[in-house]
Amino acid sequence: MRYRTLGNTGLQVSEIGFGAEWIEKMDDADVKAMAHRCVQEGINLVDCWMCDPAVRSALGRALEGERGKWIIQGHIGSTWQDGQYVRSRDLAAVRPAFEDLLERLQTDHVELGMIHYVDQVDEFHDIMAGDFYAYVQELLDAGKIEHVGLSTHSPEVAKLAVEDGRIETIMFSINPAFDLMPASADLDTLFGDAYDDSLAGIEPARAEFYALCERENVGLTVMKGYAGGRLLDAQKSPFGVALTPVQCIHYALTRPAVDSVLVGIENIAQLEEALAYETASDEELDYASVLAQAPKHAYFGQCTYCGHCQPCAVGINIALVNKFSDLAALKEDTPASVKAHYEALDVTAGECIQCGQCEPRCPFGVPIIQRMEQAEQLFGC
Ligand code: SF4
Ligand code: SF4
Questions:
Q1: For ligand 1, is residue 330 a contact (CB within 6 Å)?
Q2: Atom of ligand 1 nearest to the CA of 356
Q3: Residue 344: what pLDDT?
């Protein structure tokens, strides 16, 4: 495993990190085995944005006895309310949620305290000027976090965060599709000939942000390196061709200021696929020639299953509904296993009351109400 210094924090992080969000699908033994395998291979960075108490506890048990080998990115503002994920700025919810994180991870501190998911400029200013940041400072002073970070999908917010000077690291969504994606616009038109050179077509606000990080030595950790798995599947990729995990990781790790890619891992096989990066040949790393031959497509409006649209007014797990719909749409006949998974959901898309609360929370402009209608038609409930 190769290591990089995470910007000004001075922390030595493995260039491949463990994005732990999918451990919710695993039993305790598998989570433990996964964590051990990570340690064996030298992975030392884990991201825990998840607020589900069961998931936090499972991760805590997996890190037991090996806490010293890990650098933890713990999120401030990711809360669990009435059985659902709620991104909150209300300290009455945020404080107990962060204390709960420490307790369940069986630790008294995390190395990186991440202000969770800020995509709006106004919200960023409110956080930094108000009692939310005062709480972050309190955590710093008490040694419960060692460094302050922030997670965002917005280059505008990310840039402000670097300029602010109090944010030491940023967790940012980076992959070849997002980098070419203008924040708002007709992507088919604006993509132009961007694929001929991956950096020539980079969206200017993102390029500016990367350059600023490089200049200020603010280290980036990467989420959504595979765009929710979509880049690995030619039929779902906006490029119309499949990249390998190694190519996606290489793309992210070759952006300016990037120090680690947090790979969302569901099983040991996926971990091994990511670890192959460490020994990959130049040919295996070469994403550019794949992209150069790709047909051009837009990306905006496609779900990456990130879950940021939650909570739903009636308790629909929107990310899972979209995931099952996308899986079903790949085949002419809906696969029985996908249908069974869908039907096992506590609340299905048919329950959507079209309140519209979720749509503004989606960083990717997914027409969620429309997607719920399509899922209902597809699965019949
Ligand atoms: S529009 Fe539908 S999916 Fe979105 S929050 Fe409302 S009920 Fe839930
Ligand atoms: S609809 Fe948007 S916010 Fe919700 S899971 Fe999909 S991409 Fe994420």
A1: no
A2: 1
A3: 86
Ligand lying nearest the CA atom of residue 306? 2
Considering the domain architecture, whether residues 272 and 335 belong to the same structural domain is answered as no
If asked whether residues 267 and 361 sit together in one domain, one would say no
Q: Mutate which of 86, 318, 346 to test ligand 1's pocket (most atoms within 8 Å of Cβ)? A: 318
Kindly give, in sequence order, each residue whose CB lies less than 8 Å from that of residue 130, ignoring residues fewer than 6 positions away: none
pTM of the predicted model as reported, rounded to 2 decimal places: 0.78
Atom 7 (ligand 2): residue with closest C-alpha? 303
Q: Domain containing 103 — which CATH number?
A: 3.20.20.100
pLDDT attached to residue 262: 96
253 membership: H or E segment, kind and range: helix 245-253
Q: Which atom of ligand 2 is nearest to the CA of 306?
A: 8
Residue 142 CB-half CA count within 13 A = 12
Quote the CA–CA distance of 230 and 212 in Å, as a whole number: 29
Last residue of a domain, one of 258, 292, 326: 292
The answer on 340 and 276 residing in a single domain is no
Positions in the chain short of pLDDT 50: 183-200, 297-299
Are 149 and 280 within one domain?
Answer: yes
